[in-house]
Amino acid sequence: MPEERITPQKGTTMAETVKVMLLGDSIRMSYQPLVARLLEGKAEVRGPADNCQYTLYTLSSLGRWINELGKPDIVHWNNGLHDAGHNPQRYPVQIPIDMYRANLAHILDALGRLTDRIIWATTTPVHPERPYRADAWSWRNEEIDRYNRAARELMEERRIPINDLHAVVWSSTSEYLGPDQLHLSEAGKQACAEAVAESVARLLPFY
Q1: Which residue of 30, 118, 127, 187 lies most exposed, with the fewest beta carbons within 10 A?
Q2: Considering the entire predicted model, what is its pTM?
Q3: What are phi and psi of 45, to 5 degrees?
Q4: Please, which residues bridge with residue 118 across strands?
Q5: Do residues 81 and 53 make contact, with C-beta atoms less than 8 angstroms apart?
Q6: Neighbours of 199 (CB within 10 A)
Q7: pLDDT (tens digit, 9 = 90+) per residue, 96-148?
Q8: Which pLDDT belongs to residue 12?
Q9: Distance (Å, whole) CA 143 – CA 11
């Protein structure tokens, strides 16, 4: 099947099309194709082929992703689930919140050298009924909330606009989360994609 091409806006060329980079974990990967379709003709939406995982992985991989995808005009970004989650196969099992915030600051500095149009997305919740297990990768919503607050404080200090995907999913976790009560359902992907596309569209008049 031939690759779909993005049609430029009337009066523009492909070279002038705004380049949007989406950064994030499997949540991002699941809604990215829908965002690309929603912004078709307005922006070229790209993101790493691999999962951006936790903050330190994102920080160490940014250079490679920029080489692969090119310099973005707008970045929509999240890290959180891989940091706030308890993974018994990893040390530390949970990324400490002070390290999380410090890593976010370093990523923000690196992104700021590429563009001044950065959007932060809050980390999505797990279903309130999802069981916590000490022997498996697990999350607690109260901890996701703490990590979100730490990230929000940093972004507000840096005057970075915030796209509250947590609020989107939390409004209807039974509808927007899939069978594993962690990843997005089809409805959740659509809802998050619409929120992402809307947040990006607010910055398009600057180009």
Answers
A1: 187
A2: 0.91
A3: -100, 125
A4: 75
A5: no
A6: 20
A7: 999 999 999 999 999 999 999 999 999 999 999 999 999 999 999 999 999 99
A8: 40
A9: 48
Report whether 165 contacts 122 (CB < 8 A): yes
Largest CA-CA distance found in the chain, in angstroms, rounded: 57
Torsion of CA 198, 116, 59, 99, to 10 degrees: -90
Read off the tokens for 145. Answer: 């909330």
| Sequence-distant (≥ 6) Cβ neighbours of residue 106 within 8 angstroms | 59
Q: What is the average pLDDT score of the chain?
A: 93
Query: Helices in the chain by DSSP H: which ranges?
Result: 26-38, 55-69, 81-84, 97-112, 141-157, 165-170, 173-176, 186-201
- The residue assigned the tokens 């959007």 is 119
CB 165 within 8 A of CB 192: yes
Secondary structure of residue 19 in the 3-state scheme:
strand
Residue pLDDT, tens place only, 146-161: 999 999 999 999 999 9
- Cβ contact 86:138 at 8 Å: yes
For residue 158, what are the contacts with CB-CB under 8 A and spacing of at least 6?
Answer: 108
Helix, strand, coil share (%) of the chain residues, nearest 5: 45, 10, 40
196: tokens are 């992402």
Which domains are assigned to the chain? 18-206 (3.40.50.1110)
Distance CA 91, CA 93 (A): 5
Strands 18-23 and 74-77: parallel
